[in-house]
């Protein structure tokens, strides 16, 4: 599915205070996302890379891990400290991690 050299972490093991980058589409984000995550759709990452921290590990997430792996590969190539969240939002929700909407209410994974 993706390059095995991309560092990955299970969704259940993402630290509570981690910087999480959600690269899903706006409708997926609106339905539900990880609490505290940052949203930059995959198609916008190259143009918005300067919005990402340089001194913090970035945990990249999508629905199941494919898109986020491609973004993680790109960010690694740019010298960023990055890991792919294995299983994405599907695994995040299955691990019992909070999924919320922008107003803080319970969300769902599309």
UniProtKB/TrEMBL annotation:
Query: Transferase among the record's keywords?
Result: yes
What GO terms are given for molecular function?
transferase activity
- What InterPro entries has UniProt attached to this entry? GlpE_sulfurtransferase, Rhodanese-like_dom, Rhodanese-like_dom_sf
What is the scientific name of the source organism?
Answer: Wenjunlia vitaminophila
Give the record's keywords alphabetically.
Answer: Transferase
Is Cell cycle given among the entry's keywords? Answer: no
Name by which UniProt lists this protein: Sulfurtransferase
All residue ranges annotated as the Rhodanese domain in the record: 14-101
